[in-house]
Design brief:
The complex is a heterodimer of chains A (315) and B (205). Chain A is mainly α and 315 residues long. Chain A contains twelve helices and no strands. In chain A, helix 6 packs antiparallel against helix 10. Chain B has 205 residues and is mainly alpha-helical. Helix content of chain B is 86%, strand content 0%. Chain B has six helices and no strands. The chains are: A mainly alpha (315), B mainly alpha (205). Chain A binds chain B through residues 30-32, 140, 143-144, 147-148, 151-155, 157-158, 161-162, 230-233, and chain B through 1-2, 64-69, 73, 130-133, 202-205.
Chain lengths: 315, 205
């Protein structure tokens, strides 16, 4: 059981490496926060979010298909390798897409899928960036009107922004843990290997490990290559991300924090003018989103196929 | 950092007041000991402002303010810092070239110095308004702009007057250089004022 769980831990580590960028990437790349502080805060709140609010998502994903212990491990590894490849390329991809792609691959090979559950998850993939954009747009307008009338001097307003960004990032990490822990450990609950509470603990801890050890390169991509955000816009994007994925965590659908953050950036771009968006990078990221479930599905199908090969003497 | 910025502005004001005294002295009794003393003191205040600016820089990059605000403030202080350098340059011109300001331009040159230093005073208020959000920045910006236009007009008028006079051509060139240098004070104050306005606009979301 321990060996098969390592697949989940590996996936959680990849998720942490990738998705912490969505929470603190803009803050770190704009040098509002030091990387080490951001990584520590993110890992702590991811763990808290996973344990306290991660159960609904685990329940949803474990119902997508029936897996054996080996298949659970294979699907986790397939998703993790997909994320690792995308991370090395410096692209913020969707862990949910990687996980569902991998589960889909196993489901194809088993010829057994819960299509209604799958369609609910896929529908939410599309809803995430639009939801993120809408929330960011409303937040920007609301918070800006409040911020502009606050009687703060230059030093006070800087302090307020910095504290708000740390709080929003911590909330984002909590929401990420709550929403995405299912991607890491739900298959093992489905395979009957661990309880839901154990899943959230192991999942949360492995995401935290990924944040602490390998999240820096993607943080820099998100912050610098996509768009140059001012401190206030960074705050709005992080808050929009946190609210979006927290909503999905409450209704039990793991979604992509990458999609939510891109939606948030687009929402801010709509308020401030689209010229703040680097369209080239946006296209590249969109391409990666499309490829992620396909690659992950292919990996898990190939792994299941290989695991079923048998040596036959005389052939 | 905030109190250091006020100290910096204090040193800037002292340099300005000292320059006013020194220049008045240059008009009334040029090449006297008091003039040399006042030049030395202007340099002292200019150096003091420089030291404070360095201290602000070290402190700001160490732990205070967001990166964007740091860059804006440092750029602003560097821009203000150019003005005391011009004070020194003007006094050095008078001292090293043993310049005697002729009677016929004294009222105009005094007016030019008065308005230019008035721009500096408004600039100090504008910086304080940027930090504390106490005063209307737009009206200060407009006032500096108006003063600067007036200075430009005076500058042209004086240069024409100098070249219309029957004096040594070399002296004409010396006086022209002095007038242009004094005119630089309001130009720089105006440029810095516009910079403050941009920083202020950037801070609105």
């Amino acid at each position: 059981m321990t060996i098969s769980l390592l697949g989940g831990v590996f996936l959680g580590w990849s998720l942490g490496a990738n998705d912490a960028a969505n929470i603190f990437g803009t803050a770190v790349s704009s040098k509002m926060l030091r990387f080490h502080v951001a990584a520590l805060l993110a890992s702590l709140f991811v763990l808290i979010g996973a344990v306290l609010a991660g159960q609904p998502g685990v329940e949803t994903l474990k119902g997508l298909t029936s897996l054996t212990a080996n298949q659970a491990m294979i699907s986790s590894l397939a998703a993790a390798f997909t994320l690792l490849i995308m991370s090395l390329l410096g692209l913020p991809v969707s862990t949910s897409q990687a996980v569902v792609g991998a589960i889909l691959g196993v489901g194809f090979m088993n010829q057994q899928m819960n299509l209604s559950g799958l369609s609910k998850v896929v529908a939410c993939w599309f809803g995430t960036p639009f939801g993120g954009a809408l929330i960011a747009l409303l937040l920007y307008r609301g918070l800006a009107s409040l911020y502009n009338v606050l009687p703060l001097n230059l030093f006070q307003s800087d302090m307020v922004l910095r504290i708000a960004l740390i709080m929003a990032g911590s909330y984002g990490a909590f929401a990420l843990g709550a929403n995405n822990v299912a991607n890491v450990a739900a298959v093992f609950v489905g395979a009957g290997q661990i309880t839901v509470l154990e899943a959230t603990l192991i999942g949360g801890a492995s995401i935290a490990l990924g944040i602490l050890t390998f999240s820096r390169p993607v943080m820099e991509t998100v912050g610098k290559k996509l768009v140059r955000l001012d401190p206030f816009s960074s705050l709005v994007v992080v808050l929009a991300l946190a609210i979006t994925i927290h909503i999905y965590a409450l209704i039990g659908v793991p979604v992509s924090s990458s999609q939510a953050v891109i939606g948030g950036v687009l929402g801010v771009g709509l308020v401030k003018g689209m010229n703040t968006i680097n369209r080239g990078t946006l296209k590249k990221i969109s391409f990666a989103w499309f490829l992620t479930p396909v690659i992950s599905c292919f990996f898990s199908m190939a792994a299941i196929f290989i695991s079923r090969l048998q040596y036959q003497p005389g052939l | 950092v905030e109190s250091l910025i006020y100290s910096y502005l204090g040193a800037f004001d002292l340099a300005r007041e000292n320059f006013r005294e020194a220049f008045q002295c240059a008009i009334e009794t040029p090449q006297c000991e008091t003039f040399d003393f006042l030049i030395g003191r202007t340099h002292k205040y200019e150096s003091k402002a420089d030291d404070i600016r360095e201290e602000i820089k070290t402190l700001m990059y160490g732990k205070a303010l967001l990166p964007e605000s740091r860059g804006d403030l440092m750029g602003l202080l560097e821009s203000i810092d150019e003005i005391p350098r011009i004070f020194e340059k003007i006094l050095a011109t008078v001292q090293t070239q043993r310049l005697n300001i002729p009677e016929f331009i004294i009222p105009d040159i005094q007016e030019l110095v008065r308005i230019s230093l008035g721009c500096c005073d408004l600039l100090t208020r504008q910086v304080t308004a940027l930090i504390k959000r106490t005063e209307d920045m737009r009206s200060l910006l407009d006032a500096i702009d108006t003063h600067e236009s007036h200075c430009d007009h005076l500058e042209r008028k004086m240069i024409s007057k100098v070249f219309a006079e029957d004096i040594d051509p070399f002296e004409k060139l010396q006086l022209k250089e002095l007038i242009v240098q004094i005119g630089d004070i309001s130009d720089l104050a105006d440029r810095t004022s516009k910079r403050i306005n941009i920083i202020n606009l950037k801070r609105r979301v």
